[in-house]
Design a protein that fits this description.
Elements: H1 3-40, H2 44-57
Length: 65
Amino acid sequence: MSGGASVARAVQILLALTGAAAAARWFALIVWTFREIASRSRSVVAQICSTLVVVLGSSPAPSST
């Protein structure tokens, strides 16, 4: 394996790990939001709406502005 190929492979692994960590954090935020609102409100509508706000408002993909 040449030097350039090993650097490219290292960058690829680093990007994969960063993406996996971002996705795990996003999923954990969704679960935390649902559990938090469930402990504060018995309204199913409030639970769904607040969870949807987090799902749609904080996607792990970069937004195009």
